[in-house]
Amino acid sequence: MGTATQDAINQLKALMDQVEEQLKRTFQNIHQGYQPQTLERFLKAREWNVAKAHKMLVDCLQWRVQNEIDNILTKPIVPADLYRAVRDSQLIGMSGYSREGLPVFALGVGLSSFDKASVHYYVQSHIQINEYRDRVILPSASRKHGRPITTCVKVLDMTGLKLSALSQIKLMTVISTVDDLNYPEKTNTYYIVNAPYIFSACWKVVKPLLQERTRRKVQVLSGNGRDELLKIMDFTALPHFCKREGSGSSRHSENATESCFSLDHPFHQQLYDYMKQQASIKEPREPIKQGSFHVNLPEPAAEGTDIVQTIESQLHKFGNENGLCGSKDDLKISDD
User: Fold this and answer.
1) 91-100, 165-174, 254-263, 299-308 — which is least confidently predicted?
2) Which CDD domains does the entry mention (predicted)?
3) pTM for the full model?
4) Which of 85, 138, 229, 263 has minimal Cβ neighbours within 10 Å of its Cβ?
5) In 103-132, which positions are buried (b, 16+ CB within 10 angstroms) versus exposed (e)?
């Protein structure tokens, strides 16, 4: 670590030592004992500008306090059938660890429909997975390897990506904005697999809009990416959609527990059991209440808005060129 890097971390730490106690408490839930690495993440996200990183981190802490994020792991989505519906339509899971000890998260971007529950359930579920990763999985991996492990690897499956994905862009932008503002620099590398032509067309125009730091993290792999991914992880850690020969649907698997998106997968079973246990510790005599955990939804940053508009424009263009859509209104995003 260079002198300038360490100086910036020290400056930010000195500023954070001055925040009020309530913010310090929620900061502990963020850094989990790895404070320098956490400060470094926020500094990277603001191009090493200490004042901007300080504002970003304080805003994040205030968001956590205002939305009771520290308690979100005590709020399982119930009943289980509703949570299963969320899992079946918001395809995300954890398949294992890379050889460096980084958790491998899989996202079924192309086949996620986000149509089985309200927006707030999907945001709640996403934040719960983030918090479980940061408070349980990463600290456990750090202890196992005897060094700080504070980031993960993500494999994004584009199988099934269609023009109808336009209706999901709004929600996906909200979720990515939550991550950008409150969980910055948590992903080491994004691997894109099973990319159809429509993705390639969008990527070509979106890529130049991304910050160089983000562009360097994205790798578009050939086919299901199996051969490339096996260079950094064992076969057992591959997401299920990367294990098959050739491309294929990522929603279903012959064995339900094999699909890392399924509620029956060990990762989701452990996560759900953990949340129910935490709920019983917090309110031992109270039944778990049904209802979504509402989080204030952030406004997308200017960069994110530009990217969404570019994707929308490219999808409309693609649809019109291929005769896949009639008017622009047919693809209008709903505000519901």
Assistant:
1) 299-308
2) SEC14
3) 0.88
4) 85
5) bbbbbbbbbbbbeebebebbbbbbbbbbbb
Mean pLDDT value across residues 194-206: 82
Q: Which sequence spans correspond to the domains of the chain?
A: 3-66, 72-279
- Distance between CA 106 and CA 334 in Å, rounded? 27
| Residues 226, 235: Cα–Cα separation, whole Å | 9
- Dihedral sign of CA atoms 270, 276, 278, 284 in order: negative
- Statement: 72-279 belongs to CATH 3.40.525.10: yes
Cβ atoms of 35 and 13 within 8 Å: the answer is yes
d(CA 129, CA 93): 9
Structure tokens at 161: 């990506």
How do residues 172-183 score in pLDDT, each as one tens digit? 888 988 999 999
Of 142, 137, 131, the closest CA to residue 100 belongs to: 142
Q: Return the closest-CA partner of residue 76 out of 64, 84, 65.
A: 84
Q: Which residues contact 323 (CB under 8 A, 6 or more apart)?
A: none
Instruction: Please report which confidence band the pLDDT of residue 21 belongs to, taking 50, 70 and 90 as the band edges.
Output: very high
| CATH T-level topology, domain 3-66 | Helicase, Ruva Protein; domain 3 (1.10.8)
State the residue for tokens 């955990």.
293
Tokens representing 231? 């260079």
If one compares 197 and 279, the residue with the highest pLDDT of the two is: 279
**Measured distance CA(178)–CA(129) in Å, rounded:** 13
Q: What is the DSSP string of 139-174?
A: HHHHHHHTS----EEEEEE-TT--GGGGGGHHHHHH
Question: Which residues are within 8 A (CB) of 209 and not within 5 positions of it... i.e. 6 or more apart?
Answer: 303, 306, 307, 310
Long-range CB contacts for residues 75-80, cutoff 8 Å, separation at least 24: 75/124, 75/128, 75/275, 75/279, 75/293, 76/272, 76/275, 76/276, 76/279, 76/288, 77/121, 77/124, 77/125, 77/292, 78/288, 78/289, 78/290, 79/290, 80/263, 80/272
**Phi/psi of residue 134, nearest 5 degrees:** -80, -30
